[in-house]
Amino acid sequence: MDHSTFRDFSKAMADYIAEYLENIRDRRVLPSVQPGYLRPLIPNAAPETAEQWTDVMKDIERVIMPGVTHWHSPRFHAYYPTANSYPAIVADMLSDAIACIGFTWIASPACTELEDVMLDWLGKLLGLPKEFLACSGGKGGGVIQGSASEATLVALLGAKSKIMTEEKEKRSYADDYEIVKKLVAYTSGELALTILMEEQAHSSVQRAGLLGGVQFRMVPVDDKHRMQGAALKAAIKKDREAGLIPFYVVATLGTTSSCAFDNLAEIGPVCQEEKVWLHVDAAYAGSAFICPEYRYLMEGVEYADSFNFNPHKWLLVTFDCSAMWLKDPSWIVNAFNVDPLYLKHDLQGSVPDYRHWQIPLGRRFRSLKIWFVLRLYGAENLRAHIRKHISLAHEFEQMVVADSRFELAADVIMALVCFRLKGSNEDNELLLKMINGNGRIHLVPSKIGTTYFLRMAVCSRYTESQDIQESWKEVQAMADRLQAEKAKGN
Amino acid sequence: MDHSTFRDFSKAMADYIAEYLENIRDRRVLPSVQPGYLRPLIPNAAPETAEQWTDVMKDIERVIMPGVTHWHSPRFHAYYPTANSYPAIVADMLSDAIACIGFTWIASPACTELEDVMLDWLGKLLGLPKEFLACSGGKGGGVIQGSASEATLVALLGAKSKIMTEEKEKRSYADDYEIVKKLVAYTSGELALTILMEEQAHSSVQRAGLLGGVQFRMVPVDDKHRMQGAALKAAIKKDREAGLIPFYVVATLGTTSSCAFDNLAEIGPVCQEEKVWLHVDAAYAGSAFICPEYRYLMEGVEYADSFNFNPHKWLLVTFDCSAMWLKDPSWIVNAFNVDPLYLKHDLQGSVPDYRHWQIPLGRRFRSLKIWFVLRLYGAENLRAHIRKHISLAHEFEQMVVADSRFELAADVIMALVCFRLKGSNEDNELLLKMINGNGRIHLVPSKIGTTYFLRMAVCSRYTESQDIQESWKEVQAMADRLQAEKAKGN
Question: Where is the PTM N6-(pyridoxal phosphate)lysine found along the chain (chains A, B) (predicted)?
Fold first, then answer.
């Protein structure tokens, strides 16, 4: 494809995208296709000769769109938001065109340096302690990871590398496995024996344990599904008495299940006393800390060794962009440092070589997206975006409360409303099936303990008060239908 | 930013990109900035109010470009190529606009289904055995990973989960750690005690061992730096005799250091006899298998359990897009399956839920890039692209051979030429320093055993015969200068 064809093609795509997003409200949120719908729509092998871009453009509506779940529809309320913004799309075009792989400083200095500074910009916006910021001149600094799962895993490996070093200094072990088998990590959750799907923290925390090869302990939570200091303290004490080695705590600020906040102000001092690595996972809710009025929820963050949130969720920077800060990256850098000659360069040491801060070797120029979004929105508009979503959630909350058939399943703190029909889990499962089957709005369920509920997350930057009202009307209409069918059945 | 501003902004960016790539030959390949150059060029915090996009556009040349290493300059010859193509850039725009997170089928059916079919298209183009293809109706299938490092790690975890299951069936162990500490993985390399930077396989293989918590054994290589069947067999035998459990072999087709190919035709049967998981890492060279004349290099691939190559290296699909196939994904799916309620859906089981095939939970709609690139180039143009690069490498090879001061350090098989000044490593280190210091071309070094050499990879899709000749002239000019300086010094 030559330059002038690219100009035509990319401009046609820009028009298509603007058209798609401008009119996304008109599309059914959830597609009605069945598994396997796509394969028959396209050839079974790549073409031998080049096709025209205009033919590819035509296939977007024919092949792709029928199978798209429209995450940016104002009535998509499933999971959590994922970002979509014009500045980020354009930044990604530039990133794709420069297409450098920023594994070392010399491999593209701008890629490393803009990331270093953008993580400072973000950290300042959130009000993170200066120990996390590169500009403070200490050891701390930030890095972009692909996802919160990776950040949790990277922090776990740092904590593991630290405890292994410390234990070996303390006493002699036959081999590393003698230490590894005693290591215990902690996260919020039901009792230790609770099955995985009922745990409170995001499922990626479990996965990190699996990958890192250490045991994970679910710390019992309080009635608001939050880990408290005393419960953590007790769990650690019990494990130490059993000869185990507590080394890593993941505190979650805004769980996926119900957006519960672990009590960081209590957990922090416990971790400090017990000398265990504290990682704070604020994947979704972290974006809200750009608004000073929500920072009380991260009180105690000064005790954390690592902190992570996803601008690609709620801060309008497209996936993937998971921001992570470390007070002392050397534990991770040393654990990951496998340095072949072809990656060495003369200026090592004076700037971060980010390949040692992450699991993959390769990395894109992702900080461009942060730069474009922060400049083209400005902090005040980003704060307005967060506040609007939270306010829309409270609007929905009030409608739930006003309908006596329904109840809330958790406090509404951010832009997530957990609610349910008073009554059986089965009724709520049926209700959800009817709502999603209709496809006008999209919700997913969750469960805390034995209580099944529906989650209404405000996700799209196009969501307005009227959308929230229509979404609620749809819930009510399906509840009416459910009750009518049950009445008929009886 | 409203829709019409986006149209203006993205079109201006398309023009900038076309201009940048059209004239990339005129830019100095390697920047001359010093570490820390960028921070003083921009404010130390995000702006409070929104800026104009035109101001952001202006800052690209002022802030970013001075620090960019131009990977797509026709005279960039470092590392390996990373892809850059117009169809992929436009596909990414669409992916960013749809901005779905495809962790389950229902989260966006098109995202999962196009990936499933595109991995079949790619697998067919490469001539992979049908057991790897979803369309064959067996268990096999493909998935897009972020990088070859991740693919190696994912395969290791699958192999680990398989061997743990098998060992527990065979005899009883006190705990999992009793098994884990006996596990041994193998890859090509110098003797087991060789320091890490001298190993042949890509450094990501080491890292996977670190993350997966198992020992990695370097299998001694032959004089062409290839793992042979007998050496692997001997290493496995020795470990079994010591009571260890061999479970995973990574065969590399096209090492980063010198593009050596392990002898898969021999290694395959050894792995089958020894019942160890065989993972083939063809990150760079795999793209060449779209040309039938290079498939002899993957003879024995039918014995592999998993296979990986990076379309984002040499097949014009922008980063990140690492294609991985598994004959039996269930080992990985079962190892990774941590399934909270909010990710469950009614249609589970009939189609892949790719979150179980990878380390992160989130994933972008990356198959669009493969679809656009394969259709808009067509197989014949992609083959022409590969053949041209290899032919340019041979052109460079001939010039090296014709200059009696130089020698080749490895066979030229793909588009990489490993060469050196006859004489000391120190002279070659000086030569490289002068070449990169001049910044007109960019090379990185490597080392095999104690021999230091320079690597000239053909990377850019803009590279022509004339560029290769100029790159060689630059090497010669620096060699002349080195000799003159040495003569003066004496």
Answer: 313
